[in-house]
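To whoever is on call:

I kicked off a structure prediction for a single chain this morning and the downstream step that reads the tokens threw a length-mismatch warning. I double-checked the sequence; it's 281 residues and nothing unusual in it as far as I can see. Pasting both halves so you can look.
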Amino acid sequence: MYLNNITSKEELIRCAVLLYKTQKAIAAMPFIHDETNKIVKKNMRLGLGVTGVCQSLDKIPWLDECYKALRKFDKEWSKERGWPQSIKLTTVKPSGTLSLLGGATPGVHPAYSQYYIRRVRMSSSSELVSVCREMGYHVEYVRGFDGKEDHNTVVVEFPCTSSEGTILAQNMGVIEQLEMVKKLQTYWSDNAVSVTAYYTPEELPVLKSWLETNYEKNIKSVSFLLRTQHGFQQAPYEEITEEQYQKQLKKLKPLSTLVKANIEEGMLDGLECEGGACPIR
């Protein structure tokens, strides 16, 4: 659920109930393996996620009320259909491209910077690679720490900008980021709030102190990454200037239409992914 696009607590609850119904119905479907069936049918574990949190700080109190409404609805809906109540209902995933495409900051993350490069990895055999090249996006092979190129995978660079008023990582210290995770873990998420927290070397002492106090009870799935000077040659995000952003933008053609691959009848029986490369649909 894109918090940045939700305008009221009532709308949030309506969206959550609709997503809940979809996820619960999927959990109630038969699965291939007996062992999976037993576990899924017993736990009915769901994962309703939110994103755009750092664009929607004023909406965080809605999440607590939404969660309580969901628990109440799950009790009634499950009883009506003869299903077990769900042991877990909610989550916050790291997100990334899915959020950025919808104009939202990913999950509980702040925006990386005002202007940045977003790098996406693709199989070299993907038809999207030639489309990206044709449209003017920079494409290069993946390089390892030793400098060697992997010709099976490419990295495509997309110049991006954050919307006005969005909280940037440079303005949100690592402790503020972790406190946000703690808050979401308290008010909303049953499952792990997954996040990559950005830090600077100067913040290490206070970061260690915070973890000593909070690691056991307040966080579940947190990674840490230096915001700069981390040593990755092709990091998922790289800060750039407005001038660099505009320069890259001028090289791009509008991505208005994509030519769909012609997929023959009968290819969708499992053989189209033979060898690890699936056709673009």
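Update from on-call: the warning came from a stale cache, not from the record. Cleared it. Sanity check on the structure: The CA atoms of residues 122 and 154 lie 5 Å apart.
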